Amino acid sequence: MPSSLNPTALARLLGSWNSGALPAYRELADVVRLLVMDGRIPLDVALPSERSLASTLGLSRTTITAAYASLREQGFLTAGQGSRGRTSIPHRSTPVSMPGLAAPEGLLDLAYASLPAAGEVVHRAFADALTELPALLPGFGYDALGIPVLREAIAAKYTADGVPTTPEQILVTSGAQHALNIILRTLAGKQHKVLVEHPSYPNALDAIRTAGSRPLPVALPSPDAPDSWDIDAMVAAMHQQRPAMAYLVPDFHNPTGRLMPDHYRKRLARAAASSGTVLVVDETLRGLNLDGGAAAPMSAFSPAVVSIGSLSKSHWAGLRTGWIRADAPLITRFVATRTTMDLGGPVVEQLAAARLVRSYAEPLGSRLEELRDNRASLLELLAEHLPEWEVERPQGGLTVWCRLPTPGSTALTVVAPEFGVRLAAGPRFGVGGAFEHYMRVPYTLPPAQLETAVKALREAQDKVGDSPQLRRSLKAEERFAVA
Ligand SMILES: Cc1ncc(COP(=O)(O)O)c(C=O)c1O
Q: Which InterPro entries match (predicted)?
């Protein structure tokens, strides 16, 4: 592989890049970036010197300098020796153009609670998966249940966690959100009630509403209350309202980061059985146990529990691999639903996922350490810069749930991009406009970026605070995706 690119070769790759629609340096930087992302310019290759490229392309040197500066700023070029930077991809891969998903360039994303891939482990799993692929190529490639090695690995992980499980009890899905949609379509029809913690995970609430079901919110107690879940209210809601399903996040609840104690789990499992409610527990964040709190998986308390898992937070959301654990007859019903949407997951991803599940804990040590540091920084920064916010210390997961001194979460979210930050407003986590008093802040960014973000939040909060008029008039936020 060449370690440098000469100007003629680059000019050939660029083709007719200059449409004149934008300043030349921008267009040049955009095309080089696309070439790097496409792999047509390899990584770690020195680009031509500014002078030689300017003369080959017939442009001023200033234009090339500005284009290279822009590439450097976006992370596509290293600082390099002199002006000869080498191609690279941004370290934190803020995707460059994914409308509705990533924050626009230049914004710090506090709407997404997600981490980059867990080091080399994910890459290695894919490389190894490719070596196993030939053995599967003679097959059709369709497997609506998931490939056997992955189902075996997931079942073995549950068994090792104290919940004996066979591969027949596992359905592999394209992530936890996909799993929830399959479950909703199978178990909760139109107008059926689905009990949820309040607040809860926004995409789950959206999925419940989109399925035509009705979320039945049960408030979580405030952080200073003696109980972290109001189990009496949940049990009463199950018996009185007879929801078809309960969707719960007992393991590092999103957004509060709480961990449900075992005796609550036991009571809920019993109440669900007697009220005919299917208990669906989302264990997506279970691996992110920051304080070493102990709690058995909810499925340890009843064979009727339906569990959702995912590699998105423990390893990488880009794997798009999750699963459902349930009893085998229910899995058969879920497969029937699944095949109305898709016919199975991609095989290479599943092979990679099987390797990751088999050595599940491998990347977690350093991931948890980094998250603990980030959490400590965020808590300190919030105490220093936003002392009027009441902040709940999470036991795990990725986010801090904060109570604002006045309702104004949506206004803050609308104003925040002016200060360089993208947020998800409190009401996204609730039903019927609740939680204007709250803001979720993830600690997924490194401490230096968290500092910038919290200072920006301070400024945005001041702008909203100085103008009650703004608070009243800014009711709607842009509905972009959150995670
Ligand atoms: C509680 C919870 N469930 C599900 C998801 C989505 O998981 P996946 O990427 O596997 O669809 C998230 C992501 O933030 C989450 O926090």
A: Aminotransferase_I/II_large, HTH_trans_reg/aminotransferase, PyrdxlP-dep_Trfase, PyrdxlP-dep_Trfase_major, Tscrpt_reg_HTH_GntR, WH-like_DNA-bd_sf, WH_DNA-bd_sf
pLDDT at 97: 36
Q: 424 CB less than 6 Å from ligand 1?
A: no
Query: CB of 312 closer than 6 A to ligand 1?
Result: yes
Please work out whether the CB of residue 283 comes within 6 Å of at least one atom of ligand 1.
no
| Ligand 1 geometric centre to CA of 381 (Å) | 26
Walk me through the domains of the chain, giving residue ranges and CATH numbers. Answer: 7-91 (1.10.10.10), 121-358 (3.40.640.10), 364-473 (3.90.1150.10)
Question: Which of ligand 1's atoms lies nearest the C-alpha of 178?
Answer: 11
Distance separating alpha carbons of residues 103 and 444, to the nearest angstrom = 14
Say how far apart CA 454 and CA 442 lie, in whole Å: 11
Q: Is the CB of 111 under 6 A from ligand 1?
A: no
Instruction: Say how far apart CA 385 and CA 403 lie, in whole Å.
Output: 14
How many C-beta atoms lie closer than 10 Å to residue 343's C-beta? 12
- Residue 198 Cα to ligand 1 midpoint, Å, equals 17
Strand duo 399-403 + 193-198: pairing: unpaired
DSSP H stretches of helix in 137-201: 148-160, 176-187
The whole-angstrom distance between residue 471's C-alpha and the CA centroid of its chain comes to: 29
Q: Is the CB of 425 under 6 A from ligand 1?
A: no
**Per-residue pLDDT tens for 288-332?**
999 999 999 999 999 999 999 999 999 999 999 999 999 999 999
Cα–Cα distance between 38 and 28 in angstroms, integer? 15
Alpha carbon of 34 to ligand 1 centroid (Å): 30
